[in-house]
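To the wet lab folks,

You asked to see what we're planning to order before we commit. Fair enough. Below is the target structure as tokens, and below that is the sequence we designed to fit it. If anything looks off to you, flag it before the synthesis order goes out.
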């Protein structure tokens, strides 16, 4: 087989997807300084969430038939850029405190209300939405540390947040699954 760059390039219709063109919106987070509700400008790095279909082995005459099992969702991590007012971090900490308090160890949220819609939307180079979107439902299980140092100059503070994901909608653009939150009492 002859290698030909032109043949390789011509097999794509349109353009290649770019990793740096995306927006993340989290319901109830980011509405600061007059910004939009769930504004995604503070998320610097993210991913399209991982999903796995488990396997069930069914024994039959010294053989094992492997059939699809339950679908599960891996934890999802985002890198957040810190603002001077620590607004997003405080909102995330408040969300976590509502799930289980820091002093009283009580929860003001039901299981369903603890979950919020997180939308990860890739974009095309022309600014249009890519034909895939991840609408996942989860809660912040870990809010990472913020490194401080006198030796660090000309950098912006950032930290990671790990969300435990219970459900996603399968990547269908513009659709979400409110019945999941409703079923949990949200």
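Sequence we intend to order:
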């Amino acid at each position: 087989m002859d290698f030909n760059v032109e043949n390789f390039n011509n097999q794509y219709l349109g353009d290649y997807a770019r990793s740096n063109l995306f927006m993340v919106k989290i319901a109830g987070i980011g509405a600061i300084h007059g910004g939009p509700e769930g504004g995604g400008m503070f998320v610097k790095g993210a991913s399209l969430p991982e999903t796995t279909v488990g396997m069930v082995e069914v024994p039959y005459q010294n053989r094992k038939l492997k059939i699809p099992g339950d679908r599960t969702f891996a934890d999802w991590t985002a890198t957040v850029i810190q603002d001077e007012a620590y607004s997003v971090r405080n909102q995330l900490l408040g969300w976590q405190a509502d799930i289980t308090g820091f002093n009283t160890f009580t929860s003001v949220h039901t299981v369903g209300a603890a979950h919020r819609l997180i939308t990860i939307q890739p974009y095309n180079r022309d600014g249009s939405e890519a034909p895939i979107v991840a609408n996942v439902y989860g809660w912040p299980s870990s809010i990472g540390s913020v490194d401080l140092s006198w030796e660090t100059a000309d950098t912006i503070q950032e930290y990671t947040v790990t969300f435990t994901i219970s459900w996603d909608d399968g990547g269908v653009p513009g659709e979400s699954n409110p019945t999941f939150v409703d079923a949990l009492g949200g």
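Structural context that might help your review: Helices lie at 5-10, 87-99, 111-114, 178-183. The longest strand covers residues 63-73.

Thanks,
Computational group
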